[in-house]
Amino acid sequence: MAQALLTIDLDAIRANWRALDGLTTGETAAVVKADAYGLGVDRVAPALAEAGARTFFVAIAEEGAALRKVLGPGPKICVFGGHMAGDAEMIREAELVPMINSIDQMLRHVEALPGHAFGVQLDSGMNRLGMEAAEWAALRDIAIGQNLVLIMSHLACQDDPNHGMNAYQLQTFRQMTDGIAVPKSLVATGGTLFGRDYHFDMTRPGIGVYGGRPYMDARPVVEVSVPIIQVREVSPGESVGYGNSWVARVPGQIATISAGYADGVLRGIGPKAYVWANETRCKVVGRISMDLIGVDVSAVTSMPDRVELMGQRQSIDTLADAAGTIGYEILTSLGARYARRYTGA
Ligand SMILES: *Cc1c(COP(=O)(O)O)cnc(C)c1O
Fold first, then answer.
1. pTM for this structure?
2. Is the pLDDT reported for residue 43 higher than 80?
């Protein structure tokens, strides 16, 4: 069997969520947008609900409707993208809580679904989603008089605790919300690690739950093991893969493994990445193909059937660094071709 195996550890997901929950006194939500960062929301969300999560965040209403089918009635499902044209029926039927981002969305929401719960997203400096101070000033008394259940904003630089933007956004968020008796939420994983000042009533971790930086204490969640299809000898001067980008300098052995960029092994990873053959670290050589990767197994004494691409020996962040990207992109790029196995169910 040449199918690569993706193992997702639901125990680790629950443990990471509980550990993050333990860092704060308020509520800890769970962000499960983009199919739970590519790991499968139909398995991940129920595991998080079991661990104690009562509020879930998704990006768009369609994700929320699908999640409602998975979770059933009860948990709160919030939509970062807010209330878009055409969403009213979905929001009502799936009992979603849109995070209202603009005056337009606010009018749309109260007209289509009067009395239906909503949150408000404020822009505290990131300039991505949310109402600016002037819009909010014009609207806040009206919003507070309706079924407003959460006020939130988002930090632009929470992967860097030393960035001055964090304190600036904290101060801006406070100025916009001081004295309003509605639950508030400012931070995702990164800001959860900044301490109480940043926590307000609810934190919204995503990546930390899935085992990624900047939550350094996270348990690894994802393991990818890839079968070796073929092993060959190469002589000095022989090249490997498309474009002859790698050429052997000494006699060696190359294993061709059964995964490629169609499985989310980003092409940019090529020159700096490794896989593990048991305890031996093996360099990726040549270009990553759609379905295949060459690795230098010259140092391997007893050839295994499979190599580890991610797991205990190599984290999603190590791989992300090799590709010049972030763990989030590694996870959400995992393709549909893997055999998926969940442990800790
Ligand atoms: C994705 C997202 C989160 C979760 O961020 P992590 O860095 O993965 O913890 C929280 N809030 C908002 C608004 C987001 O878009």
1. 0.97
2. yes
